[in-house]
Every structure is written in structure tokens, then in C-alpha cells.
Write a structure and sequence with these properties.
Elements: H1 2-15, H2 26-43, H3 46-54, H4 56-59, H5 72-88, H6 92-102, H7 111-118, H8 123-133, H9 141-151, H10 155-167, H11 174-182, H12 186-199, H13 205-214, H14 218-227, H15 234-243, H16 249-258, H17 265-276, H18 281-290, H19 296-307, H20 316-329, H21 335-338, H22 348-360, H23 370-374, E1 395-397, E2 405-406, E3 424-425, E4 429-430, E5 432-437, E6 442-446, E7 452-454, E8 458-459, E9 474-483, H24 484-487, H25 490-497, E10 501-505, E11 510-517, H26 522-530, H27 538-550, E12 584-586
Helix pairs in contact: 1-5, 2-3, 2-5, 3-6, 5-7, 7-8, 8-10, 9-10, 10-12, 11-12, 12-14, 13-14, 13-15, 14-16, 15-16, 16-18, 17-18, 18-20, 19-20, 20-22
Length: about 600
Amino acid sequence: MPALVGVLLLFVSLALSPPATPDDNESEERWVSMELALRTLWTGDPAAKRATADDASHEFGPLFEAHPGRDDEAVARILAGLQSLIRTETDDFVSYRLLSALGNFDEESLTALFLEALKSRSPNLRSCGIHWFAEHTDPEALPELEASWRHEERPWVRESLMIALVENGSRNDTDDFLDLARGKDPVLAAAAFRALTRIGDPRVVPFLAKIARTTPSNSGLQALDALARWPDSPDALETVLEASRSPRLDFQRHAAQALGRFDDPAASARAYELATGRADGYVRANALGSLQGTEPVVLTRLALQILREAPTQENAPAQSAAIATLRGLDDPSVLPDLAGLQFASDDSRFYELRWLKIFLRLPRDGSETVSNRAGEPHRSRDADVVLEEGRPEELVIAPPPDRLTVRCWEYPDVPGDPKEFSRLPAGDEVEINDHFERENESWVRIDENDCWVPLRFIEHPTGSPAGGDKEDDMLIRREFDIPAGEAESDVAEGLMDAGLLEVIDPGDEVVGVAITLDPQDFDQVLLLARSCGLNETMLDVAIDEIVQKLAPLYPERPVLDRFRRTPAARPADTDQVIDLEIRELTDQ
């Protein structure tokens, strides 16, 4: 009841706001549009609510911009209305998408909304709160985050939850993080490494050192990067020094970069050795970067030494890094030393050197000294170590065994227009952009068509091509979605009676169907052709596409002439393979 009263007061205050006039400026128009968006979220139909929630990052932008004529109280009223909506909205998807969109604003005034989400019983809203508090803090958040850690099982949420716990001051879960870092899930292991690194607990150094020394994979590299968080640890330094001599280039490159975090002379000596040696060009470049805190005179001499090498493809990264180093040192006195350096005009180093000379000839501010400019690139030991995010998982569409495709939904349980959301074929590579939980189904939003698919139809690639090998006896199968009304038409029922059409995904608005036929059976081809109208329906279009591909198999059949887009092939040419561009299904 208090929430309802608050909403009524909100709408009264909005109604009493000065009406927009033709002379209102753009700011006022956007504010009015925002108020209408809030009304839609409260009173609109489901489709309007979903559309408004998806566009919330645009509609509610005025909250965080200049708004002449609107005071802080007006902003607070809108935020209170949004918070009440999150607490009372019955459509979880609307609240979830609203919070996801608002999360694009890095504004502390939104923390109360995400704290409300964190306390929600909805797993979707809780995940929004967890993602928010991975980058923001609030004293009330920590107990909720600790409770979530005890019960949360979704890997993609636990990944952010670890960071949120550390960000909000928890130090009680180090052992759990260590277990995950040892685990087989690479995504959770990477998140655990980042959490452990942020904690800075020296107890994890031996564990990280062991992983870096014994794991020849991305986890080993992440452990190596994380060790740079403890620049005073002899074990950490020794591990990095060992990695700089690894037979694997990726470990050498990461180690060369990590050396710059250690103040021990052994780290500088090894970085100098790598930079001046004949190692991989990127190892040398990273080693030179690790020496940015060295005396400018020494660093200048080293950079010039590298630039005087005969240019090759192998030393290109090192020479580019040397040019960048000289630019960072910003010492015009090196210009005479650059005079004799030459690179081919089609070499990127040619332009890098050219711009360096132009830069060094620019007038200098007398208050800016070489020494303080040279020190800028060197990171302090307290700077945060940012571990590289892993690449997105390689995933593919995996329909049920009796299907070739899966439906591409506009929203979870909302099919959308089949003209815009085509079915997705087995084996299509996809990337997951979002998750949503229904009562009995987990959904994911994928990059393909920006649509939603049940998570059970997404898996890691197995290496087996979908559809299997072609055989002499083949059935052609075409799966597609059509409006429910078309599935109930006389044409559709006739094809179903003939065994050529079947319903594979029933629905009230959209129905998934499949046409299956033997291309060598002309009676089936003829029936399909005679069922095709004038491309007025999606079923017509699908039939037309199929018969177009089959018509060349029957050049002597005039009844198929209207489906021929090119002259009929001579009978002697019909033995060639016809590219049907349709998935085939072995006749079993």
C-alpha cells in the first residue's frame, strides 16, 4: 500500500508539472519524454513496457544531464518512482531490462535502485545488483552479497559476485576463491584470480606461483600477471624471472611486462637483458616498457641503441616501443641522434619516427622538465593490476536431435515477427550477451539477430558437422517459422495430410514448421509446386525457394517453368550437383 500511495503522488506531481509548449527547449522535451516513459512502465501493455525498458538508457538520460527548471526534488521523484517500480513490477523481464539499461550510467544516485534489486527474491534482479556492486560500494550491500555467495550457483553471476565481495570489503572468502582458481572452469578461475589479486592477501602468492610454473595455459598466464601485485615477494619475483626464460613466447611476453612492477635490481637487470638481446620483438618491447622508471639518460641510450639496429620484421615491435619511449621522455636533445635513422616509406616505423621528430621540435613549457616527464609512465607499486579479460567462449547452436534449427525469440517466451527473427541453424557460432531466468528455463541473448534462445540449445562445439555426410538417398528438410494463421490455412493442412509439412514448434502467435520431401519423387515436388501461391504468405515464400532449387532437376517439366529463374539445363547437364542451400536429412 505505501508503494501504491507513493506512485499516485508521483503521477499527481507529474500531472501538475508545467505543460510542454512549442517553445520548450530540447531539455524540457526530453524531460517530458522521460515522464511519459515512466508512466508507460507503470501502466503500459507488456509490449510497450518491454520496449521502454530496453530504451531506458536513452529515456532516463535527462536525470544525469542539465535540466533547467527542474530541481533535485524532481530528480528524486523520478528515482523514487523507478525504485517503487522495481519493488512491485510483476514482469521480471521488464525490471531486469530496465536495470540493465540504467546500469550503463555510472551514477551513485542509482545505488538505491540496485540495492533494492540486490535484496529482491528474483534471481534476475539480484544478478543486476551484483553486477552493479562489482564496481560500486555501499555498507548495506555487503551482507546481501555474502548471503548471495552462499546460495548463488550460476557461473556467470558468481564471476561478478567474487569481484563485488572484494570491492565491498569482504575478506572472508579467500579459500573459496582459491578453490575456484584451481578449478576447471576457465571463466570462474579467471574471476577468482582477479578477486585474489584485488585482495592482496600474501597467502595466495605460493599458490599463484605454483599455477604460473605448472599450468601452460591461460590460467598460468593470469597467475603470472597476478603475482605482480606483490612486488616485495621473493617468490613472486623468482617466478616471474623463471617465466622470462620459458620456452613459451606468451609466458616470456607476460613476464617481461610484469618485471616493471618489481623494484628489485634483479628485475631491472633481466628487463635490460631482454630489451637488448635478440629475443622475440614483443618480449623486447614489453621489457623496454618495464624499464620506464629507469634513469632517463640510461633509458634514452637504450632506446637509441635499439633504433640503430638494422630494421627487420622481427625487431619492429621493439623499435616501435623505442620510438614511443623517446616520445615519453620528451627530450629534444636526442634529435641529432635521430637524424641518420631511416625506414622504408611503407613501414609503420617510418611514420612513427617522423611524428616523433615533429613532436620533439614543438615549443616546450619551461616548467616541464625531462625528469618529471620521464617518470610519468612508471606505475607505482600501489597501482591496481588489471588482468586481461578472457576471450568470449566459443559456442554453437545445438538443436534437439530431431531438429536442424532452433527458434530465435524476440524476448524470452515472446516469439516476435518471423520475418525479422529467422530460425538459427545447427552449428552457427554465437556469443552470449545476456542471461535471464524463467521459472523452468534459462535463456540467453546471443549476438546473432540480437535474439533470445533457451540455454539448453547452446553448447561448446564438438567438431562434428551438423547434418552428417550426404548419401544417395536424401530427404530435403526446410525448417522455418510462420504466423499461426498460416499454419491453419487450407494449403498448410493439405501439405500436412500429404506428409510434406509438420509442426515442430506449436504456438499461439508463431508456429515452427518443417517441409520434408524426397527430391527424386516428382509427385511430391509437383504437389509442393501446386501449393505455392503468389508469395503472399511466408509459407508461399518458403515453398517458392524450395521449388526454385528443385526445378533444375526436372528440365522437361513445363509445370515448373514459373519457378525457373534461369534457362532450363539440357538433359545431359542434369547429372551435376545441385546446390540446394537447404539442410539435408538422411532418410532413415
